[in-house]
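Explain this record to help learners:
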Amino acid sequence: MSFGPPLVLAEEFRAVHGVEEILLFGSWAARYSGEPGPPPRDVDVLVVGTPDRDAGHEAARRAEGRLQREVNVTLRSRERWENDDDGFTRQLRRSPLVRLIGGGAPTPAQAADT
């Protein structure tokens, strides 16, 4: 599971039109980043861009089949990801994130690690 989710999710989402960036967050990203804790039971994925919702969720379902883990997808437009200041977005920006696809400026949590 250490390398499976990044590879599988990148493969599944790469073909989805409108995807600008894919970030893993939550317990899987935390364990991958070295935070101690129990093994993750699912994988949380932030999709940044303007993909078709159905295509994004279908990519997640294919990844679930390959990973044998639940994949939870959150969709955000680029503008919303960069500019929103709601509690969920603030929490994500403070938490470990694993970038799979795309670039953009690093989040504040990632910039502090460099």
Summary: Residues 105-114 have pLDDT under 50 and may be disordered. The chain has six helices and four strands. The two ends are 25 Å apart (CA to CA).
